[in-house]
Amino acid sequence: MPSQPWSVLLACSLVLAGCSAVPPSTQTSAPIASSSASAPSRPASTSESPSPSATQSSQAPAASELPRGGRELFPAYRLFGYSGYPGAPGQGRLGIGSLNDRLNEIERRGKAWTGGRKLMPVMELIAVTVHASPGRDGMYRSRAPEAVIKKWHDAAVKHKALLLLNIQPGRADFIDEVKYFEKWLTYPNVGVALDPEWAVEKGQIPGRAFGRTTGAELDGVARYLSSLVERHNLPQKVMLFHQLHVTIVKKPKDLKQHAGVVYINSVDGIGSPGAKIATYRAVMRTRPGYVHAGFKIFFKEDVTTGKRLITAKDVLKLKPQPEYILFE
To answer: Which domain holds residue 189?
Structure first.
């Protein structure tokens, strides 16, 4: 089990919550996490964002590749990136300043973390933000406007990066939130990052209770993503799920393998290097062998609670070796 007690983990999550924000166009209440549209066909290239008027081709779509080549991520690439939301420093470094500046920074910083692999930059956009109040639909969440996703997708295309849509669902179901973004998921450089810490049940309020998910619920999302990969002849699509405690994903082995979907279990405990490694090892013991490992680092909170940031040398010595490194 992780060395951090449950109450400390909840307190850390609420500390992160206090600084985040969502755009005025979608804001229904103050967000608490620092973390159905119909689908047009995928365009032939990723040079432009999708158009709602796009029509389905009668021909089978041509095979597409990942932003830096190939159709499979591992073992060729190490994923390295930042998370965030524009103008919301509390949700991660990627929302601070210019996207171009942050992506150039990812490129530079990521070199120390590649461990002999090729670098695949990642932008993790908080596309669904959890709230402490229910909002109009009672779901305790809001969705990023189309214009924000388009801007970030355009930046991902320019920098040959992956864009992961992070989903903090509140009382909504993961599958409904993922399907909402289907037109973006028909692109070869777009995947999802699920945040079950913020997936609560009816009667629960995010931030007052930790959310959770099940392997079966994750499996439903994976089946859907696999169908998109097959229909649009896409390269591997990332389905990442964050986890800060072993109890947050129940029966993880109910998540089965599905063609074209690559799973990453990103461990995001807060604290000293020793505490973070303990959390990582505890979560990894519950991970199915076909799920790849990820490791999350908090620029501010890890230093505040643990005195220093964990190093690339420390992380790359872990077994299994993390294949996705995320900084918030």
So the answer is: 6-34+64-327
The pLDDT tens digits of the residues spanning 121-134 come to 999 999 999 999 99
Q: What total number of domains does the chain contain?
A: 1
Bridge-based pairing of strands 213-214 and 237-243 is unpaired
- H-state helical runs in 233-272: none
Q: In angstroms, what CA-CA distances link 147 with 51, 143, 232, 290?
A: 12, 12, 24, 35
Q: Is residue 51 part of a domain?
A: no
In a domain, 25, yes or no: yes
**How many other C-beta atoms are found inside a 10 Å radius of the C-beta of residue 63?**
11
The answer to whether position 169 is within a domain reads yes
Its pTM stands at 0.85
Can you tell me the mean pLDDT for 201-217?
A: 94
Alpha helices (H) along the chain: 6-17, 99-110, 146-158, 174-180, 182-185, 215-232, 273-284, 301-306, 312-316
Tell which residue, 214, 248, 301, 272, has the closest CA to residue 13.
301
Assigned domain for 90 exists: yes
Residue 136 Cα distances to 28, 120, 133, angstroms? 8, 38, 9
